[in-house]
Structure formats: C-alpha cells, structure tokens
Amino acid sequence: MEFLYPSVLWALAFLAVPIIVHLFHFRRFKKVFFSNVRELRELKKQTSARTKLRHRLVLSMRMLAVAALVIAFARPFIKPSEHVSGTGKLVGIYVDNSLSMEAKEDHVTLLEKAVELAKGIVESYDRDTRFQIVYNDAGTRQHFALDAHEALAALREIDFSPTFRSLDYILNVKEELVKRENTSGVPVYLLSDFQKQLFQNLTKPDTALRVYALPLRKKPVRNVYIDSVWWEAPVLWRGRTNTLLVRIVNDAETPAEKIRVELDYDGQIIPVGVVDIPPRSAVVDTASVPIRKAGWQHAEVRIDDYPVRFDDSWYIAFDVPEYLRVLVLDQGSNIVPYLRAVFQSLGNVDVQIYTPLSVPYDQLGGFHLIILSEIKSLSSGLINTLANYVQQGGTVVFVPHEKGQVDSYNSLLKAFAAGKMTREEPRDREVSDIQLHSTVFRDVFRRAVQSPTRIKVHTAWRFALHPTTRAEQMMRYRDLGPYFVRIPRGQGNLFIIAAPADPEQGDLVKRGEYFVPMLIKSLLSGRRQTDLAMIIGRDKWFPLNTQIREKDPVFALRGEDYEQILEVRNRDGILHLGLTGPVKRAGIYRVVHKDKPLRLVAFNYDRKESQMQPAPEEVMKSYFEVRENIERQGVSEWIRRAEIGYPLWKYFLWLALLALLIEILLLRWLKT
C-alpha cells in the first residue's frame, strides 16, 4: 500500500490528544455515607475495574477513528501491476474533431465534451507529465510532447475540421513518438464517437501503448444528408430548363419523413419538394432549373436535418456556354446541309466546317462535339488527338465514306478498342432493331413504337465489335449487326454510324425522327461540364479550360477571408490547377489570375463522416480497453484508479465511522 499524499500522515501526531484527555480526565466524586463500610469497599473494587475497561476501550476507538481519518486523507492506494512511474511520464490524447462530432447530446456538441474531458485528463496528472495532443488537423505539433500548460493551450485551439483520420493513422503517430522517446507503457486516451470507418485497416496497437477508448456518444444519432448532385444533361443549354438531380440518404434505422429540399440559385430560393426516405435508404429527387444566362454560375441544394448539419448542403459550380460548338470535319460530302439544318434549328449551336488538312488542333478542347463526316482517310496525328479529346470528355461521331481507307478507319477504331471494319460487296440492308430505351432514344418517343419504320442503307461496310468492347448498341441491322453504337472512353464517347449517311447511300438523313435525336443527344452526351464540386480532403486538381498565353502564370483560389496560390500543370494541352493547402470550409471559391476571375470551384465536405453508425462494442474491445460514460467530474478519479492504483481511502473512512459508532455504544451501554 502506498499514499498519494504521504505528507498528510504527520497528522497522526494528533493521536496524542485522546491519550492526554484520558490521562488528565479526573472525575469528581460525591460523598455518600453508608453504615456498612465493608459493602462499600466491595462496590468500589467492582466499579473501578469496569471504569478502567470502559476508558481503555473508548480510548482505543477514538485513537482508531483519528488514525483512520488521517490515513483516508493521505489517499492510500494499491499500485496496478503495470504502473508507470509518476515522474517523466508521457501521456497520449486523441481528440476526434471531425465533422460528425458536431452531433449534440445534453445540448452540447460531442467535440465540446471531448475537449473538456481531455482537459480533465491533463489536470489529473503530475506537473512533470508530458502530453502528446493529436487531432485530425493538428499538423506538426502532434509529433512532439508538450507540458501541461502547452497541452491545455493546444486543446483550446481545437475546432471542427473536414479532415478525416483513421485510428490506424492516429496510433502510428503515437507509436512514432513513443519509439523516439524510448519509453513504454504509455497510456493513450482516444476521445471519439468511434464510427465504423475509423477502424479501416486498423491493426493491434503496439505493446508500448495502453490504449483507453472513451466513447462520447451515448445514444444513436439520426442523420439525413445530401450525398451528391448532378445535372441530367452533361452539357447545359442557355435559355432552357435543365434538370438537376439530388440524391438524399437516410442513415438511420427509422424512416425520415417530410424532408424539405430547396435550391438556392440566382438569388432565388426554389422549392424542390418534400421527400420521405425509408430506413437505410436513398432517394433521388429532381429540380427544374431555368438557366437564362451564360457563364460561370453556382447554386446550393439544402435540406433541414437536426442534429447533424454539416452535410445538409451541397454546393455546385457550373459553366453555361453562350453557344454549343460543333466541329464538322468534311471533304465535300452531301450530308453537311442536313447537319447544318439540324443544329441551326436549335438556335444556340455554332457549327464550324473544316477539312482534315485545316484542323484547328489547339482549339479542339473548346468544341462540344466533333463529327467526322465521311472523311476518306484519317492521319495518325488526328486519331491521337481525337482519342485524347474523348478521354478528356469530348464526343466524336464517326461516319465512314463509301470509299474510305480500311486501314485508316481501323486505326481509329483500334485507338478506342472498338472493333474492326471490313469491306464487302455493296448491298442493300435494313436497320430495324432500334433500342428505344438507349442513351439516344430514351424519352424521344412518347410511347413505344410497335413497328418502327426501317432505315434503308446501301453499303459495302461491315462493322464488328470487339468481344471485350464496352459498347451500347442503339441500332442494329436485321441480321443484328451493329449500325449505331456508343462506345464510352474516359469521360467522353465515340458514336459510330457503321454506314455512309449520304442520301444516295441511304435514307438516314431524311428520317428526322431518328437523325435529329442522334445528333442532339450525341451533342449533349459529352461530359464537357467541369466537375460540379470537389470533395475537401480528397480532390486536389481541376481543369481551367481557359487559354492563358502567359509564361509561368500565377493563379489563386479565393473565398471569404481565404486565399491560396495554386499549382499549375499542363495535361494534354489543358491547364490543370492543384491545391497547395487545405480548404477547411465548404462553399464557392473563385479562381483568379491578376485579380481577374476565371472560373468558380465548389467545395463540399466528405460524406464519410455522414455515416453515423458506431463500431460494434465487441470490435472496439478487441482493440482497446473501453471505458464508457466517463464524465468530466469523474475523470480524475478514474485515471487515478486506472493509472495510479486502486484507492483505499473510502475503506478507512468507513473504519473511522465504525470506530465512532462503537465508542457511542460503549458510552451508552457499558456504564460504571
């Protein structure tokens, strides 16, 4: 047995007080006259013996009570078997300050509870104890040991952070310092809500650590959040209503009812609707957004969900072109007038005609659609350029010429791993199998066509898809050979019409019910729309899509009271900008060059933290020693018991009370 406050034991000197009281306590005797002296002598002998016994027992109980009280105040304890020396001790503390910790219990956030509990842990140790304070965005400070004053200052600076750290990363940081300090048996306190994702890739902690998990959440938290937002059409049309899709997730075991969804766009709040979401499910809602102007714009989709609020908003930034630009590479074919007629009817499409020898290679990235209109031969340089263009999100429509070069066409198809074209004797063929639910023809016809009119083709080409090609066959010949195919590649698409479209070779261009949606949907299928949003802590690079002819230009990302200089890289002729520092707040930011705004970037919080399910208790106990329901008031007592030893002061206090009770009984029942 040892004492937490051994200096209190000097108070045992007060044991002399009851002894002195008993030694100098003289009773006054009253004279009583008896006629028989012999009987008086016998009575005096009996009374004197009982009095001495009574006094000695009372003195013993009083001395025992005083001694027990003094020892209780000295805080006796029994050392644990793995006790760490009280001098030069190192203690590790991790405070989870991720966004999920903004959930409230008892009207305070979990982060506030964690910080207060961490302060209690620091104050429970000796002054010469050093502390390693780790939190998700602690930076280099987390790699060093701090004294108590510095540790408390670090705890006061902790605020919510979008940075996510797994427990494997946290424990690795702890182990590095322990090895550098050449110590062992270091207590580590983990203060978190312990979501499932924290345990990703977690291994057993090093034996040099004694890890205590202190869960802060007492009851399940319901959370409904916006998971993602995207446009139905990748390319937005100015002056028309565009459809925005919103995916909302219910992470709770109970249904979420009457969740209101609204859109903040162009200074107006647009009600989207009210949705009901079953437990552990997701729904997709749609919003009709009238876009009246061109240029970079932004919007925010919101829901109202308590108590977790960080994931109730989703910001988007998008570029609406003034005109949709179409490049037609042609060598005098007869289908150009039909192409012009289709696009001119749309009103805001700019069609430019070039020959293969005058291709504006440096401007291809600005076109939404490139049509290879019956070109006889394709150069290797053009093929490589088109492959990169599609990889970056462009769309190419390929129409073969009646007398095109087979090797040239197959080089193009090989670049897309699409298949192979062969030449045979020209013959009449019919296109009869039309997939009305495909990318192009979906929502084109109001009702299913029972017997669609067949497209007649006179061609010498036969196209065969490669067995491993990922393709969507939207039109096929009667013999099921592919006629109109979409082949996705990277972020874009290659559309193949497997026969010439010249009016003399078939009637496709005269069949507006098919030809018009084939061109319009191809134009809108490209992913030319820059990513609507970036995820904080996960995404770093984004394209600029603006020509800057300056050498070594400097770009900055600016927000409200925020600015950082961006990295610059050139990828396939497109400038990409990268973050050089963390973005801590979701919202809309501007990219500027010489104080001129070039584009908008939307940042959103990672939805990993939106999955609020805690790790099962058996999983936690397989890694750590779990201590639940530890409050700020009792943390010091718990630490003394866990780290200093088993306290015995209560038993000595009860012993003092027992001694006083026995004394009372002796005075009452053992009378002289």
Strand content: 25-35%
**Shape summary:** elongated
- Fraction of helical residues: 10-25%
CATH class of the largest domain: Alpha Beta
Largest beta-sheet details: 9 strands, mixed
Distance between the termini: 41 Å
CATH architecture of the largest domain: 3-Layer(aba) Sandwich
Describe the structure.
The protein has 672 residues and is an alpha/beta fold. It has five domains: 2-77 and 649-669, no CATH class; 90-220 and 613-644, Rossmann fold (3-Layer(aba) Sandwich), CATH 3.40.50.410; 224-321, Immunoglobulins (Immunoglobulin-like), CATH 2.60.40; 324-525, Class I glutamine amidotransferase (GATase) domain (Rossmann fold, 3-Layer(aba) Sandwich), CATH 3.40.50; 534-604, Sandwich (Immunoglobulin-like), CATH 2.60.40. It is 25% helix and 32% strand. Strands 17-16-18-19-24-23-22-20-21 form a nine-stranded mixed β-sheet, sandwiched between helices. It has a five-stranded parallel β-sheet with strand order 6-3-7-8-33, sandwiched between helices. Strand 11 (256-265) and strand 12 form a beta hairpin. Helix 1 packs antiparallel against helix 2 (37-73), helix 3 (110-123) packs antiparallel against helix 4 and helix 7 runs parallel beside helix 8. The model is unreliable at 83-88 (pLDDT under 50).
